[in-house]
Amino acid sequence: MAAIPTQRESESDDCGAQGLAHLPGSPLAPGSARALVRAAFADWSDRGLVDPERSARLADDAMAVVSELVTNAVVHAGTEVEVDWRLEESGAFVVEVRDHHPARAPRDPARGEAPYDTPEHGRGLRLVATLAESWGVTYRTGTKTVWARLSADGREDPDGPAPAHTLAAAEALAPQPQRPGADRDWLGRGALSFLAEASDLLAGQLDENLVTALTGQLIVPRLADWCAVWLEDEATVRGGDGGAPTRVWHASENRIEELSRALEKDPPCPRDGTGIPSLEQSREWGRSGPEPYPWPGDALGPQDAHGAALAYRLIAGGRPLGTLVIGRCGLLCFPDEVTGLVEDLARRVALAIGAARQYARQATISAVLQRGLLPGAVAEIPGVSSALVYEPCDKGGPSGDFYDLFPAGDGRWCFAVGDVQGKGPEAAVVIGLARPWLRLLAREGYRVADVLDRLNQLLLDDATEAADAAARALVAGGARPVAPGDGPQTRFLSLLYGELTPHDGGVRCTLASAGHPLPLLLRPDGDVRTAARPQTLLGVVEDETYTSETIELGPGDSLLCVTDGVTERRSGSRQFDDGDGLARALSGCAGLSADLIADRIRRLVHDFGGGLPEDDLALLVLQAE
To answer: Which own/partner pairs from 602-610 qualify as long-range (CB within 8 Å, at least 24 positions apart)?
Structure first.
């Protein structure tokens, strides 16, 4: 998935407001930077620090400049990026983007400077120079900073169109195809606004198919009469070397099918002389285009038998992702202004596809990991009916909540409902330790309290070993000091664990709660009481001794076990369990089956907050038959 930037914002008497963000050197960084600057301007506007009549224009310019500078740093440096911004007392906006590759200076083609081996500079510095009052580069030991200052009044273009604030407005700013002389107008504010809006639109997509669909909508008919995208298959690294295009667009929809068939017969591939670069050539040169592409005249009809077509390799992070081909009828060649604009757009398309694939990979890994952390099925217990609700709030990552219900042998069944401090990989590590050990210890005959004692020691030992390993690595390797939150995390676990033994006339239940919401026992007459006493979290106190309680579940008795996603569900300043709210809700479930109890509690929790839950939610109902 995407890395979350760290950020601080503060106020001072001199500059009004400022902020700092540390972003990973990934394709997601430009979108994160734009979002942070957008939020900063919204905050400054609410606090009256910027002139409302000018803040929208300044914010648009600031986001475009920040996006270009961060993109430049990601492409050319590939290191972590620091974005520092401030609002001066005069109302001017200043941004500094630092990377840690000082040997790679930015190149400005407008000054005749040759690009590096990876010429993905696009028009970024032209955009910055157009929008900024001043800009420059500062070198320090180990870092390079590119900065820009935008005045509160902006740099007006008397001949340019009005500023654009939406993609629809940006589309109106772009000239229609085949308008003589219109291409040169694209160097004005209209093209820059269009590019900035397109960047925002593409950066927010997490599905590569949607990215390609948006690409066609952005290009046809504003920049070309038709276009097509081939995507590489990551598993076999193919796609640009043959096969049908992933998507084809044409200004006239009745031409799409025939054009697609023609392009399938003539896919982008190495050619004699000056053809489209091969996969290996693309890797070697780092080229993103443009390169000539043969005109598919037979597929377009006699009126469009001639035209110009160009191919752009889609490359992000040095990896070829596919090829974009555009065509325009009635031209011998594309104007330079158009090829430059499309190359910029292709670079953003490649970054968006790369980010979408990275998200898809992370989502797949998370889904596989999540399935491995939870039981494939819960056990069926003689004389006991069970119902489970499990709703992780983050569908794309491992949840911090887990559950289990399994046979332990000798006529015993064990259940567990747990909640790990935090989420994601750290939570997955703890669950990956706890659930197998619970099963192993239970099946080895350890009783409830003994299982908690040993699991508590296991978590403490594991945390100690991780801290020792980190300290040894720091001393041996001379690594940089560990930043807060980067080192080994203390692994706390709240757990409700119990053992069920069915017998004639009911079920014997022995259970213990370690820092977990206490289980509630519902009698058939509606009486509700707690079924355990509170004890310390697991993984906190060395040599802690846990105890257990034993209760008898008679026919119709129900035991409700929940995580704090239920008890701490918020509605304003109130929580669901305030004033024994969960017990009152459970009392109203008297006479219901286990399934109906679970469903009613779930609905009451959802309705209480009025929106989607902000925490993982798990609840288990066990009912003696």
So the answer is: 602/389, 602/391, 604/576, 605/565, 605/566, 605/569, 605/576, 608/569, 608/571, 608/576, 609/569, 609/570, 609/571, 609/576, 610/571
Q: Residue 91 in contact with residue 55, Cβ under 8 Å? A: no
506-514/534-535 β-pairing: parallel
Which among 333, 338, 289, 326 has a CA at the least distance from the CA of 307? 333
316, two tokens = 């992000």
CA 103 to CA 402: how far, in whole Å?
49
Locus of tokens 């009052």: 133
Contact criterion met (CB below 8 Å) for 27 and 74: yes
Q: Are 10 and 41 in contact (CB under 8 A)?
A: no
Report the interhelical angle of 208-219 vs 189-203 (nearest 10°).
Answer: 160
Dist. CA 558–CA 556, nearest whole Å: 6
- H or E element: which one contains 400? none
User: Taking CA 265 as the corner, what is the angle to CA 263 and CA 270, rounded to the nearest 5 degrees?
Assistant: 85
User: What is the residue type of 333?
Assistant: C
3-state SS, residue 604: helix
* CB 578 within 8 Å of CB 544: no
Instruction: Show the tokens assigned to 431.
Output: 């669950």
CA 262/CA 254 separation, integer angstroms:
14
Torsion of CA 461, 466, 471, 472, to 10 degrees: 100
Q: How many helices (H) and strands (E) does the chain have?
A: 15, 24
CA-to-CA distance for 385 and 553, rounded, in angstroms?
A: 12
Q: Which residues share a beta bridge with 229?
A: 247, 324
Amino acid in position 533: R
| Entry pTM | 0.54
Residue 443: strand, helix, or coil: helix
Which candidate, 213, 185, 187, places its Cα nearest to that of 201?
213
Q: CA-to-CA distance for 328 and 317, rounded, in angstroms?
A: 29
Q: Who contacts 7 (Cβ-Cβ below 8 Å, separation ≥6)?
A: 19, 20, 21, 22, 36
> Which amino acid makes up residue 552?
E
pLDDT digits (tens, 9 = 90+) for 221-260: 878 889 999 998 765 444 444 567 888 888 888 888 888 8
Question: Residue 61: phi, psi to the nearest 5?
Answer: -65, -40
Tens of pLDDT, residues 593-607: 999 999 999 999 999
Tens of pLDDT along 532-588?
999 999 989 988 999 999 999 999 999 999 999 999 999 888 999 999 999 999 999
- Cα 591–chain centre separation: 44
Nearest-5° Cα angle at 48, 46 to 52: 85
Q: Tell me how far apart the alpha carbons of residues 416 and 402 are, in angstroms, rounded to a whole number.
A: 8
DSSP E strands, 319-437? 319-329, 384-391, 401-409, 412-420
SS3 label, residue 308: strand
Give the tokens for residue 396: 């794309």
Cα-based distances in Å from 311 to 174, 229, 621: 21, 10, 60
Q: How far apart are CA 107 and CA 124, in angstroms?
A: 10
What whole-number distance in Å separates Cα of residue 195 and Cα of residue 595? Answer: 54
CA distances from 413 to 254, 378, 380, 474, 598 (A): 65, 11, 9, 45, 20
Tokens of 47: 């606090």
